Automatic annotation (TrEMBL), chain A:
This is Unannotated protein. GO terms for molecular function: heme binding; iron ion binding; monooxygenase activity; oxidoreductase activity, acting on paired donors, with incorporation or reduction of molecular oxygen. Coiled coil: none annotated. It comes from freshwater metagenome. InterPro entries: Cyt_P450, Cyt_P450_B, Cyt_P450_CS, Cyt_P450_sf. Belongs to the cytochrome P450 family.
């Protein structure tokens, strides 16, 4: 073979001239099999190196867990000099920081106050808990228990629609007696929104706008290009809420049961009569709180329901166990949130110079508490990559209002822990487990309609959940 | 969890009643103009669209611009001809960074390219070997009547010329070339390529160590011997310096320019006829190629200090992407900028010097090669510039091709296109099948 021919082949191989790049987009990080951390090399002592550019890569966004494992094992507090921030990745470190509300406060760069308004997200200490309790207390304990009947009713109403051929929610094949539907469209997208609207006391027409508010306000928190749209959505919400607030100030609205008895006032009415420092809350303050509920109440619960059904159907033995034992829905819900939650983490800013895991962090640094990583911390959960609703190290009883460990079991980190623990955790838990429990009693022989599901880049296997929630979940089932 | 790309820094806190307290921001909100196409989103610059056809997106950036804040890529794009040239000559405010810096190996070896003995040996070597190599390569396929000019001609010629000039034995050349290409491709963003590139650098060091000792003992007439016997301050020259010098140099512009030039000539047969009949025009075809389809789409500069330019506040250390492709198609500079016109009247046919020519004509910009320089055209005691050398070499190779073939044309059913294989990489034609009759 001639020299020129040898060189031609060398060049073709070096530039991958004949590879088809149109679909895989080589300019980006190469996609790789799930669960394989990319080898970024090792230093002289054999410690894996970590290149912060990975955080910007598509591969990382698809499946960050292997990279967080490297960070947990070798760089528990990682200084990312490229993005000028620190990543805290071990469960115990994160929990410690979350509980230290003054040492690690929540006024990080890119905070939410310009879109969500003045909410408790940015506050710390006593001020924070006072603001949070204004509405948070209506979403836990007895106040929540009173609402469970109405939540069940909402779920049943939505599921009734599946068997109504005119609703268009499902496709029915009379030959096989099977229904096909997309769980998100038929249930999970809408159910949390209906619950939140009911809890807030929004009229029905608010549901159509809810997604708009949610999407743009959440997008606007990130600032930059979306901030303007976020502010517009916020203004739209404010216009909508304003008239309701004025009305409720004069005449509170109540959730009614089937007999027409007053069960509980809605949250807007509660906020209208709330008195802080001898003064009622202004409409602006009420709107801010509502904006926060709108932001937290929809997408996360939707993701939990979809992910839970997806994961359970991937593990038929566990599905079987849940169907035979209704209380296991709680465990399934929490294990889903541990295994693949929707919220990646929370930013914090350290008030003082600190030294954490041997790393000196100067005061005022942006520190990312990576909840994803905490949930997969081998130091807390054995075999964390495995989805196992029967695992004995995850606490899955009624959510703890303080602390994060009980009976040798540990809370997952999807709701966070400490003073900023998600105030919607309890209601979200009820929506997820009650909704799914009711669903499971109305349908049988459920399977994932694989042929309808989004495919992975290989065109064969199902798309991975990776980060956040699965986009859509197609189910095939029979009526019970 | 989204990555944080750095937040705007507010240096002075505004106080009540003090309107002067500066509102300083690195953020720019690009508003859509009425009647214009929607502005480019930062993500679009990292899609396959940009790799296939950067010119459409860049036209949009020019339209909306002087500058574009790509917050996702954390970079500032400059696309107007006058802006790009002004940054390229402004070494007081904007710095280049070596490929070794991108590798994270800024202290790896020394870049010896500015030493006169090296430059002299390189120029002499290229002058000596270029015609021979060109003939060899063309003869390899001349009898066949068909060839792929991109892979068999444009891609191979610069490598073989590099090997001969540097004094690398032909037998070692394929192995050397494999490592060399891996190294050249690795300094970009892609971490996988980067790791492969670092490995290649170490392999090249172990390859050059014995070779360098041999040349030092018995100097030959090649670049490697010039490096081996070079006397400079500091420690003696070792293989790391050789590899660093090799890395900072570049063969890709010649590869891409040759492929693009023949792509353009073959897809504009009337221009090819003209060039074939008037061989003097080969040089002009090459220059117009660098303008019309530069193989290196953009050059990167880093702000040395905070500067306010192009309607932006550019922070210290910011990456400024000087888009040569955008500037070369600037309609305010080049008439019919999207047309390939060999010998066009508004393109200066000499080496670009400074931001503006005395005669007012612009030159096409090709980073790594044709960037404007503030230094005089012919420095005393130095060989002619790499710009001129590369231009002459491309001309020699193309002459050899024209001499060996008759009736050169695109193969039937061939639809060649230009594209990049990766972000920030060569924008060129990867397959160019042709037919001809041998002379």
């Amino acid at each position: 073979m001639s020299l020129a021919e040898d060189l031609r082949k060398t060049v073709a191989a070096a530039y991958e001239v004949d590879a088809d790049t149109a679909s895989t987009q080589t300019f980006d990080f190469p996609l790789m099999p799930l669960g394989t951390a990319y080898d970024m090399g090792r230093d002289a002592n054999g410690v894996p190196l970590f290149d912060p550019r990975i955080f910007d890569s598509r591969e990382f966004q698809r499946n960050p867990y292997p990279y967080y494992r490297i960070l947990r094992d070798h760089y528990p507090v990682y200084h990312d000099k490229l993005h000028n921030c620190y990543f805290v990745t071990r469960y115990n470190d994160i929990a410690e920081c979350y509980f230290d509300g003054l040492g690690y406060n929540t006024i990080p760069k890119g905070s939410s106050n310009h879109v969500l308004g003045n909410t408790q997200l940015e506050l710390s200490g006593i001020e924070h808990s006072r603001r949070r309790n204004l509405y948070g207390r209506h979403l836990v304990g007895a106040a929540l228990t009173k609402r469970i009947g109405a939540i069940c009713k909402l779920a049943n109403e939505m599921i009734d629609e599946w068997f109504n051929p005119e609703s268009g929610m499902t496709e029915y094949d009379p030959a096989t007696g099977k229904y096909t539907m997309e769980l998100g469209k038929a249930f999970a997208n809408e159910f949390p929104i209906r619950v939140v609207c009911q809890v807030l006391g929004f009229p029905d027409e608010a549901r159509d706008k809810f997604y708009y508010w949610y999407k743009y306000m959440m997008g606007g928190i990130g600032g930059r290009d979306y901030e303007q749209k976020g502010l517009m959505a916020r203004q739209d919400l404010e216009d909508f809420v304003e008239s309701i607030v004025e009305e409720r100030r004069l005449k509170p609205n109540f959730l009614l049961d089937d007999e027409g008895n007053e069960v509980a006032p809605d949250i807007i009415s509660e906020l209208c009569k709330t008195i802080v420092d001898g003064d009622v809350l202004s409409t602006e303050e009420i709107t801010s709180n509502i904006a926060l509920i709108v932001g937290g109440g929809g997408e996360t619960t939707r993701g939990a329901i979809l992910n839970m059904w997806y994961l359970l159907l991937q593990h038929p033995d566990q599905m079987e166990a849940v169907l035979n034992n209704d209380p296991l829905w709680d465990a399934a819900f929490h294990e889903t949130l541990r295994h693949s939650s929707s919220i990646g983490g929370q930013p914090r800013q350290n008030t003082f110079d600190v030294e954490l895991q041997g790393v000196k962090v100067p005061a005022g640094s942006l520190m990312h508490m990576v909840d994803f990583s905490a949930n997969h911390d081998e130091r807390i959960f054995t075999d964390p990559e495995k989805f196992d609703i029967l695992r004995n190290d995850l606490y899955s009883e009624k959510i703890l209002r303080s602390g994060y460990k009980k009976d040798g079991r540990t809370n997952h980190m999807a709701f966070g822990v400490g003073p900023h623990l998600c105030p919607g955790a309890w209601i979200s838990h009820q929506e997820g487990s009650i909704g799914s429990s009711i669903m499971s009693k109305r349908i049988k022989n459920v399977r994932i309609a694989t042929e309808r599901m989004a495919k992975d880049i290989d065109g064969v296997s199902l798309a991975p959940i990776g980060l956040g929630a699965i986009n859509e979940l197609w189910l095939e089932f029979e009526a019970m | 969890m989204s990555a944080d790309y750095g937040s705007p820094t507010v240096e002075h806190e505004a106080t009540a009643g003090d309107d002067e307290a500066g509102y300083r921001s690195y953020e720019v909100y690009q508003r859509e103009r009425v009647g214009s196409p929607p502005p480019v989103k930062p993500g679009q610059l990292r899609t396959q669209d940009y790799l296939d056809d950067p010119y459409t997106l860049l036209a949009n950036l020019r339209h909306y611009g002087p500058s574009f804040r790509d917050w996702q890529g954390n970079a500032f794009w400059i696309t107007h001809y006058n802006d790009v040239t002004s940054v390229l000559v402004d070494s007081a405010n904007f710095a280049t960074r070596s490929k070794r810096w991108f590798y994270g190996l800024a202290t790896f070896g020394r870049d010896l390219r500015n030493n006169v003995p090296f430059l002299t040996a390189q120029a002499a070597g290229i002058d000596k070997h270029a015609p021979v190599v060109a003939r060899e390569i063309v003869e390899a396929f001349a009898k066949r009547g068909t060839a792929d000019l991109a892979t068999e001609f444009a891609a191979v010629f610069p490598l073989q010329l590099l090997g001969r000039t540097w004094g690398i034995p032909d037998a070692d050349l394929p192995v050397f070339a494999e490592r060399y290409l891996r190294m050249q491709r690795g300094f970009r963003w892609n971490t996988a390529n980067q790791e492969a590139g670092k490995q290649a650098m170490l392999q090249l060091v172990s390859y050059f160590t014995p070779l360098l000792a041999a040349r030092r003992a018995d100097p030959q007439d090649d670049v490697l011997s010039a490096l081996a016997t070079l006397e400079i301050d500091g420690p003696a020259i070792d293989a790391h310096d050789v590899v660093a010098t090799l890395l900072e140099g570049d063969h890709e512009t010649l590869h891409g320019a040759l492929a693009n030039m023949w792509f353009l000539l073959l897809t504009h047969p009337e221009q090819l006829d003209m060039v074939n009949n008037t061989r003097r025009l080969v040089k002009y075809a090459y220059l117009e190629t660098l303008r019309h389809s530069t193989p290196v789409l953009s050059g990167e500069r880093f702000a040395k200090r905070e500067v306010e330019r192009f309607g932006l506040l550019i922070p210290e250390g910011a990456l400024v992407i000087c888009s040569a492709a955008g500037a070369n198609h600037d309609e305010t500079i080049f008439a019919d900028a999207d047309q390939f016109i060999v010998g066009r009247k508004d393109l200066v046919q000499r080496e670009p010097r400074g931001q503006y020519r005395a005669d007012g004509l612009p030159a096409g910009i090709t980073p790594a090669l044709g960037t404007p320089s503030k230094f005089p055209a012919l420095p005393v005691g130095r060989p002619r510039s790499l710009y001129a050398i590369t231009r002459d070499v491309a001309t020699i190779a193309s002459h050899a091709l024209l001499d060996a073939t008759n009736n050169l044309q695109l193969a039937k059913d061939a639809h060649p296109t230009l594209k990049s294989r990766g972000y920030g990489e060569l924008h060129t034609c990867w397959h160019l099948p042709v037919t001809f009759s041998a002379k």
